[in-house]
Amino acid sequence: MFPVQASTGAGQVDALYIFLLVVAGIMTVGIFLCIAIFAIKYRRRDPDEIPRPIHGSIPVEITWSVIPFLVMLVMFAWGTRLYFENYTPPKDTLDVYVVGKQWMWKVQYPDGTREINELHVPVGSPVKLILASEDVIHSFYIPAFRLKHDVVPGSYQTYWFQPTEPGRYHIFCAEYCGTNHSRMTGWVDVMDPASYQNWMNANAPADSMEQRGAKLFAQYGCASCHVLQTTPSPALNNLFGHPVQLANGQTVIVDESYLRTAILNPNVHPVRGYPPNVMPVFQDQINEEQLLDLMVYLKSLSSNQSAAGVNPARPAPAGKAGAKP
Amino acid sequence: MSTTLPRPQIEAVNYLNVDYSWKSWLFTTDHKRIALLYLFSITAMFGIGGVFAGLMRLNLLFPDGLFQHDTYNKFFTMHGIVMVFFFLVPSIPATLGNFLIPPMIGARDLAFPRINLLSWYIYIAGAIITIVAILHGGVDTGWTFYAPFSSSYSNTHVILAAIGIFIAGFSSILTGLNFIITVHKMRAPGMTWGRLPLFVWAHYATSLIQVLGTPVIAITLVLLGFERILHAGIFDPNLGGDPVLFQHLFWFYSHPAVYIMILPGMGVVSEIVPCFSRKGAFGYEFIAASSLAIAVLGFLVWGHHLFVAGQSMYASMVFSFLSFFVAVPSAVKVFNWTATMYRGSISFETPMLYAFGFIGLFTIGGLTGLFLATLAIDVHVTDTYFVIAHFHYVMVGGMVLAYLGGVHFWFPKMTGRLYPENLARLAAVIVFVGFNLTFFPQFILGYLGMPRRYATYAAEFHTLNVFSTAGATILGVGYIMPLIYLSWAWFKGPRSPQNPWGAKGLEWEQSPTPPPTYNFDVPPVVTEPAYNYAGEVDDGGH
């Protein structure tokens, strides 16, 4: 009846679920019993009998409206608290970048390791997933952690978890995405920290994401403006996690969503003091994985990388502006 | 109340035998004949949707599936489109509502008889286009048409299906408009708002949603068309759009639409329970008001479909709260129906069995809705079989059972014939058992983590899927039985007396069975409240 509990959050969700099961069970049994008892006790014994009318009772109506509502408020408060906890990552997480595309999950780690349809994580460390999609909406679902989040093209979504039990657990795509949706599955491999370290060392690639990002930064000629200032351009040092004022007067904290739009469609919300239509548009020039590499590189230029900590379910205002229809 | 003299049953002129020509049916403006046109049309659509459901369950007998993935994806899409837009939305309003609202309020017809006929033709046009889309290879987007898959990636007949739904929406709007105006303007003398049957109240609330909500799905589908054909850049981020915007627009209609689908069922049960308890509805005002409350609050909860879709966490919090709020009027109804039976005189004819089934299954459907309104649980179970089970408990366990109950309850009124009672009771029990065996395992599958819309699935989900398919087979038998014995009874069944259930209500007491074209031989005057089984003297319309 219950899937494996393999994270700190799983047991909490199950506890809440059991609370709801108990309430729902009491209600269902209560209604069923009432119907059964009334049906038997008040069955028609005489074809001509006419029962005494009962029109209703306001106190009774109020009672059975208010009491269930109060119980529901408990569900609401409990569920909301857990939801905020599950979707608000703590500081100092192990970040893993996941790109969904029809019909596979491409996973990469900051050290540059890449894998497909597999996610290796150590027991006991909080892990933050940064989710991106190359095409349609997917949803990265790990039943053993009781967590999922849609992977929405054009934005970054995140959630976090802390695994507690070593083992292999399902990854499912939970948002219908076309032909092989049901084959867009994979495994989370939760390892004890030592095995995890061995695995990381054995698979360590030549370049980390940051190094690959630095190469892309050079390859696309970003440095000529943003570093050498051949054309006046916003400096990128200590940018991530800091506020920046836009040409439209708005001030936003620079986070992944902001940077994403700033790279792909720089004219959507240019920084105050810098004219639009100077930087080339990189939409369709750069793929999701390269963009993530660049993102990691840009984050490395800032001292307080975790300050912004993408709020998964809340795109920055800048991101919203970029998505204006 | 006037006592009806025994009527000469055999050759009385009624709306059925007044004219047998095909023209008299295709050009009729009689709300009762239009109701029957709808009845046959939606039964056909239910059959098509049911075949797709059967094929899905067949595929899911095996973890690796039986059909190609694309084929399965089309099955569930077309099952959803046909059942939601061409069966559930019109089901009770267009058939029972169309047939019964005028006689229930003492009117000779709906306010706009020709618009009523127009609405059927529009429905048929939408249905034909959708069937053409199916015959040309179908659609694979899911009935929810989420962008950018539907706008930029699917290679199937998205536009054609969207046009079919777009057109059918206007039939829904026209029906709703007709009902609202009819209830306002056509009530018989003495039929005050406080005396309206609860069936009429439920339809009034439904009609408000139809008129206010349906245009939004029409707009959404038009935008989807713009995006797909002209690459307008509304939903696809590659074109500068926002995919989550589509979900907001879609659910702004489609969540209220589930109340379009369930409120009329609640109206049916609100008639059946008093009749077979021989006792007025407990808390009449509360049942009536809760229908309106559901109609209003139903417009404020669409965001609970987007808890994991990337909307603001604070928006999710508000939508979660409002979703709990809308549960209260639904719960109030269940309590009031149950209380109506208290100290009643309960008999167990087929419609009452369906009403029992409705109350029980709707209770489970409603309570599992609370799980989905609870944010942290929704994160785990949304887009899994838990959701499938939940809405089938409401839509099939609720709406379809109410529909079958209502069809049985008013069958003598509509046809002047009686159906074989014991066979019908047996079918009701088979439907109940088959339904639970089909859908209860899906709650467990959902919590275990089986995602919806999966053509293939992990081996550990196999056993429960076999149960579900077995249940679907039984459910299928339960659906086919009424089709056969009701068809038989229509022509060969024994003639029904004027009021076989001893029910209250103008449609039973003052309109002949079956009714003549304009429903009443003598214009009715109402002198008592609804469900006055005890024959109490009225205190003046309350």
Tell me briefly what this model is.
By secondary structure, chain A is an alpha+beta fold. Chain A has helices at residues 8-41, 58-87, 193-203, 209-219, 222-226, 256-264, 288-300, 317-322; strands spanning 94-101, 104-108, 114-116, 118-122, 127-133, 138-142, 147-151, 157-161, 167-173, 186-191, 243-245, 251-253. In chain A, the strands form three sheets. In chain A, strands 3-2-1-5-8 form a five-stranded mixed β-sheet, with helices on one face. Chain A has a five-stranded mixed β-sheet with strand order 4-10-9-6-7.
Structure notes:
The complex is a heterodimer of chains A (325) and B (542). Chain A is α+β, with helices and mostly antiparallel strands and 325 residues long. Chain A folds into two domains: 1-42 and 55-205, Cupredoxins -  blue copper proteins (Immunoglobulin-like), CATH 2.60.40; 209-322, Cytochrome Bc1 Complex, Chain D, domain 2, CATH 1.10.760.10. Chain A contains eight helices and twelve strands. Chain A has helices at residues 8-41, 58-87, 193-203, 209-219, 222-226, 256-264, 288-300, 317-322; strands at residues 94-101, 104-108, 114-116, 118-122, 127-133, 138-142, 147-151, 157-161, 167-173, 186-191, 243-245, 251-253. In chain A, helix 1 (8-41) packs antiparallel against helix 2 (58-87) and helix 4 (209-219) crosses helix 7. The two termini of chain A are 44 Å apart. The model of chain A is unreliable at 305-325 (pLDDT under 50). Chain B is globular. Helices cover 67% and strands 0% of the residues of chain B. By secondary structure, chain B is an all-alpha fold. In chain B, helix 9 (243-277) packs antiparallel against helix 10 and helix 10 (284-297) runs antiparallel to helix 11 (313-341). Chain B has a single domain, classed as Cytochrome C Oxidase, Chain A (Up-down Bundle). At the A-B interface, helix 1, helix 2, strand 7 and strand 9 of A face helix 3, helix 6, helix 9, helix 10 and helix 11 of B.
